[in-house]
Design goal:
Layout: H1 22-31, E1 35-39, H2 43-52, E2 56-59, H3 63-66, H4 78-91, E3 96-100, H5 110-124, E4 128-132, H6 138-146, E5 151-156, H7 162-165, H8 176-190, E6 194-198, H9 202-211, E7 216-219, E8 227-230, H10 232-235, H11 253-269, H12 285-290
Parallel strand pairs: 1-2, 1-8, 2-3, 3-4, 4-5, 5-6, 6-7, 7-8
Bound molecules: 3-methyl-2-oxobutanoic acid (KIV).
Length: 291
C-alpha cells in the first residue's frame, strides 16, 4: 500500500485493492491515524462494511447474542462460529477478518488454543484470532504468535468471564489500572499484534495506548485508543432495549425494516402486491426467448 489514506478506500473497487494486513495497522498507529472496526457475521453486512471502507471485521462471539439469540456470549460454539467466519472471509477481499475464539475453546492450554485457532484459519479463512483474558493467557498468546497465527488480546472487561467479574463492570479503576497497563505490555511482549480494550476508564486506555507500540482497539475505553470497535447491530440501530453507555447508534435499521415489513403486510392484505410487474403473464414472447 503506497499511502495510508488508502486504508479507508480510494478510487479502486474492493476487487482491485489488496488485503489489509497487520503491518498496515501498525503503520497507522505509528502515523497516529485512527481506524474503525465492526463486527460482521454474514455476507451482506460484511460486503457493505467492506464497501464503506472498514479495514478490520471481527466475527465476534457476540454472535451468541446477536445471531443465535442467547443472553450472553458463553453458549456459542466453535462449530457454530466457523460458518459465520467463512461467510465473512469468503465475501470480502480487503478487510482483515478476525475470528473470536469462543468460551472454553482456548483457556485449557496453549495447545487447545492452537488447535482451535488452526480450525478458524483452515476451515473458515480467518486471518487472525482474538482471545480474552488477563496474564494467565500469555502462554496462549506466545504459542499462537510462535506458530504464525496473529492474535489480538482482549483485556479489561472480558464478557466470557462475566460471572467471575460479577457482571458487566468497568475494569481498571484505582489500583487495578497499573495491573492492566502491565498486562498490556506483557501481551505485546508475548507477540499479540493488537489489544482490544473493553470498558476501561478513558485515562487508563490512553495510558495503555501510549505504553505499547501495537494498536489498541477500544470499546467503552474512550477516544485515546488507536481504533474503535462496535457491534454492528448496536451501531446500526437493529438492537432494542437498554444499550450500553459506549454505544452510538448511527442509523435506525430496526425502524427501516419494521416499516418495510409493515408495508409488505399492508400490500398483501390490500391485494396491492404482487402487481402485474411482479407476475408472469400466460404468454410473453420476449420472456420465452430469454428464459
Ligand atoms: O465479540 C464481540 O463482539 C466483541 C466486542 C467487544 C467487539 O468482542
Amino acid at each position: 500500500m503506497s499511502d495510508t489514506t488508502s486504508l479507508y478506500g480510494n478510487n479502486q473497487s474492493p476487487e482491485q485493492q489488496s488485503r489489509i494486513r497487520i503491518p498496515h495497522l501498525q503503520r497507522m498507529k505509528a502515523l497516529g491515524q485512527k481506524w474503525a472496526m465492526l463486527t460482521a457475521y454474514d455476507m451482506y453486512a460484511a460486503s457493505i462494511f467492506e464497501e464503506a471502507g472498514i479495514p478490520v471485521l471481527l466475527v465476534g462471539d457476540s454472535a451468541s447474542n446477536n445471531v443465535f439469540g442467547h443472553e450472553s456470549t458463553l453458549p456459542v460454539t466453535v462449530d457454530e462460529l466457523i460458518p459465520l467466519v467463512r461467510a465473512v472471509s469468503r465475501t470480502t477481499r480487503r478487510p482483515l477478518v478476525i475470528a473470536d475464539l469462543p468460551f472454553g475453546s482456548y483457556q485449557a492450554s496453549p495447545e487447545q488454543c492452537f488447535h482451535t485457532a488452526v480450525r478458524f484459519m483452515k476451515e473458515a479463512g480467518a486471518h487472525a484470532v482474538k482471545i480474552e483474558g488477563g496474564v494467565e493467557m500469555l502462554p496462549q498468546v506466545e504459542k499462537l504468535a510462535r506458530s504464525g497465527i496473529p492474535v489480538m488480546a482482549h483485556i479489561g472487561f472480558t464478557p466470557q468471564a462475566e460471572h467471575q467479574l460479577g457482571g458487566y463492570r468497568v475494569q481498571g479503576r484505582g489500583q487495578d489500572a497499573q495491573r492492566l497497563i502491565e498486562s498490556a505490555r506483557a501481551f505485546e511482549a508475548a507477540g499479540a499484534f493488537a489489544l482490544l480494550i473493553e470498558m476501561v476508564p478513558d485515562e487508563v486506555a490512553t495510558q495503555i495506548s501510549a505504553a505499547v507500540s501495537i494498536p489498541t482497539v477500544g470499546i467503552g475505553a474512550g477516544v485515546g485508543c488507536d481504533a474503535q470497535v462496535l457491534v454492528w447491530q448496536d451501531m446500526a440501530g437493529l438492537r432494542t432495549g437498554h444499550l450500553p453507555r459506549f454505544v452510538k447508534q448511527y442509523a435506525d435499521l430496526r425502524g427501516v425494516l419494521l416499516g418495510a415489513a409493515q408495508d409488505f403486510i399492508d400490500d398483501v392484505q390490500m391485494s396491492r402486491f404482487p402487481g402485474p410487474e411482479h407476475s408472469f403473464p400466460l404468454e410473453n414472447a420476449q420472456e420465452k426467448n430469454h428464459r
